Amino acid sequence: MSDCCSGGCASSRPPVDPAYRRILWIALVVNAAMFGIEIVSGVAAGSVSLLADAVDFLGDAANYAVSLFVLGMAAVWRSRTALWKGVTMGAYGLFVLGAAIWHAVSGTVPEHVTMGATGFLALCANLLVAVLLFSRRNGDANMRSVWLCTRNDAIGNVAVMLAALGVFGTGAGWPDIVVASIMALLGLSAAKSVIGQARVELRAA
């Protein structure tokens, strides 16, 4: 029993799915590339929602890298990793809320064309990853955290494009602030879900 709790129980190690490993590598490369694109675009456009999405892409790239590392490890280690990822997802949500407040106070009006174009490119990238991950959305806490991150990203990308339309129509920055706040709340909600499932799995392990 002690060997199992320390991650040494061979029977708790699932076979590594080569297809899932390939999906994680694709997701890692796509998210790392989109982080670079969005961080540059977010700074250029003065958009807090784009910057929030860029940070999210960076977090997801790390998420996929960690998931690749623990793939095939004992269940207890996968659950511990999922718990850590849930905490980082929550930290991301708090960071975005802080950034949204700062932009609201400073009265920043972002550049809507860059916002919309970058948001559309990010949506295409996330839809590709979401399609690849869809069949594994109901796996363990680790797989679920990967799926939730991708799902939230796609929703966030649509919201960024709507924010760009709102900035264009109003000439004000509040649509950007509202969308960034919604993205933060999505991150906090996903964090709660992942942490809850990971804790249940850890107790069972």
TrEMBL record:
Compartments reported by the entry: Membrane
Keyword Transit peptide: no
Chief localization: membrane
Membrane-spanning residues: 23-45, 57-77, 89-109, 115-134, 154-171, 177-195
Cited SUPFAM superfamilies: Cation efflux protein transmembrane domain-like
Signal peptide interval: none
Pfam families listed in its UniProt record: Cation_efflux (PF01545)
Keyword Iron: no
Domain Cation efflux protein transmembrane: 24-194
Identification of the protein by name: Cobalt transporter
